[in-house]
Amino acid sequence: MTKNFINQPEVQALLRESAGLNSAEGDERFKNIIHRMLENICALIDDFNVTEEEFWHAVNYLHE
Fold it and tell me: Quick one: which of 4, 22, 23 has its CA closest to 13?
C-alpha cells in the first residue's frame, strides 16, 4: 500500500462509505472524524509495513 493507494477514487469511495459519508443520517462531524481516522490508519499501515498480527495487537492494546 502507498499513499497514492489511499488517494485512489475506489479506495476513497470505500472509506467514505465506511465512515457513513454517503448517508444523510448521522452527525457530519463524527462521520468526518471517522473518515480521517480510517485514512490515517491506512497511511500508518503503509508507513510502518504493519502486519496483521501487529495491527490486531494494537487494536487489543487500545481496547484494554
Answer: 22
Cα dist. 22→11, 28, 56 in Å? Answer: 14, 10, 28
Note the pTM of the prediction, 2 decimals.
Answer: 0.79
Asked if 50 and 44 touch (Cβ cutoff 8 Å), the reply is yes
**pLDDT 10s digits, 21-62:** 999 999 999 999 999 999 999 989 988 999 999 999 999 999
Angle, to 10 degrees, between the axis of helix 9-19 and the axis of helix 28-48?
Answer: 130
Closest listed residue to residue 18, CA positions, set 2, 31, 1, 5? 31
